[in-house]
Prior knowledge:
The complex is a heterodimer of chains A (about 450) and B (about 180). By secondary structure, chain A is α/β, with parallel strands linked by helices. Chain A contains 19 helices and 16 strands. Chain B has a single domain (about 5-180), classed as Collagenase (Catalytic Domain), CATH 3.40.390.10. In chain B, helix 1 (about 15-30) crosses helix 3.
Amino acid sequence: MAQKPSILVVDDEAAMRESLRDWLMEDGYEVALASSGKNAITMATEKNFDVILLDLKMPGMDGLEALRGLKDVSPQTEILMMTAYATVDTAVHAMKEGAFDYLVKPFDPEEIEIQIKKIIAHKELILENILLRKKLEEKYQFDEIIGRSDPMQEIFDLIGRVAPTDSTVLITGESGTGKELVAQALHGNSSRCYMPFIAVSCGALPDSLLESELFGYEKGAFTGAENTKRGRFEMADKGTLFLDEIGDISLKTQVDLLRVLQEKEFGRLGGEDTIKVDVRVIAATNRDLPQAIQENRFREDLYYRLNVISIDMPPLRKRKEDIPLLAESFIRKYCLEMNREEAKIAPSSLKLLMDYDWPGNVRELENIIERALVIGRGKEIIANDLPFSSRDIMSESFPKSLKMMEKMHIERILEECGWNISRAARELDIDRQTLYNKIEKYDIKKGES
Amino acid sequence: MSKTITICPIGFVEKDIINTIADCIEMRCGIDCVVSSRMENPKYAYDEGRCQYDSKLILKNLIKCCPQDALRFMGVTHVDLFVPILKYVFGLSQVEGKCSIISIHRLRPQFYDELADPNLLKTRIEKTVLHELGHSLGLTHCRNRHCVMYSSTKIDHTDRKQPDFCPTCFELLNWLIKKM
Lengths: 449, 180
């Protein structure tokens, strides 16, 4: 509360309200006075007061009636009832009607000071909470995930349906496709959104360290364990735990993880107590887990525990129509960070971006835009600002032989059309039979391009 | 307007106490003090039900007697003061006015069943005077627990703070005085 907290004093006795005003003003409050409940309601309609000090016994509209009226016009204002000894019962009744507390007249100076400070602190906390919630809501909207393409629309739809559940989710996709953003969106749109979202990059940690990171340890559990440490599972209690690069964890950690997912409890390293947690687990990987199962590198039971719902993030090369939108968004983000005028992207540069294959996906696009803005000085991102030229793209993506060019082109169109032969034939401007012949001739198989 | 503060004893007030107040204001605020003639015991402000004196009524009387050229006019009394809404006050200042009043009654250790302690009483008087003078000159309560403008709702608070303004309140006080 940057401005002075405002207080309305409602009392029919001038001496009471004036002495209270003088005393409150010494504390730096902005004080207004009303001589009746009716007056107070009119004033509270016109201005938001932080606190109202309301006398219970007043001629005409009494304190209780005024309290109801004030709560109607200004529900966020806290009301402190003022009463004489004889009416304490009524004051208690007023609290049931929504008054914050009551004070018996005459007050002990300390008592009123404490009550008002309590209300102001309470209101500041509410305000802080509202701001924090707003910030979190903004953070966790889908806005962070950009895409108008069909595959992304399907992802958004899936997030919307899956987020409110408590089901475990496995997010798959190549590196840089935005798996963590999806995990955050799932958390942010669930009932757990005000509780912690804890992310662990499993692949980045050695096995022993990952174990202590996930489950924590007791003091003296191993050399160097000087204090008890809570693990990520404990930290994420009532919230969401995001296990990134789950395909890289050891078989031992897989067993521990499976146990927590089944039992919903675990113990810290070196500890004897069992800790119960309520955690939603979202895992992600860029590895082919079914393949890892075949090779005995990943436990099948854990895979099925994690893969209750799966979300497969499409690589950027399969949603190239999103590139202009993504590029614009990154330009806006970095221009703002660099405090410079928003740059445009030259058509020739956009063509280069559209032609590139993006092995590093959205993350690579973001890095390239940031780099282009750092090295380029103009109002436009030109081809020279990009780390690749059309020749690089041609030599990287296209073979020299005409036959191979044809094969690759057919493969690409088939992929784009989802292997709908009629659509692909129309795109290629050939008939269906010719397309079948070429598929056979080049030995093109679904999913191999 | 002269830059002097007029101190007015209300009822019998020991000379030592008046001197303590004058010295304190001159030393801490750099403002000269004069002592006016004594006012009668404020019987008119006595509340039989509460066995206390209504400080608002005494303040009203002070306003009537306030010397025109005084920068501020401060009444000092031994009687126990209250305002209608509060059980007691150590002092009271006129909102946007020149007058203020302080009571010695609840500053005496004997009031709290403790032994008389002239040094403790002197320090309490100094703190209460500076606090009310601060209000009278336009300062509000300070969040710094050691500042003399920190709110005192009971004697412990008074004892905990220093008989001095914190640097912020001191700067503000000088600025307010210069504006007058």
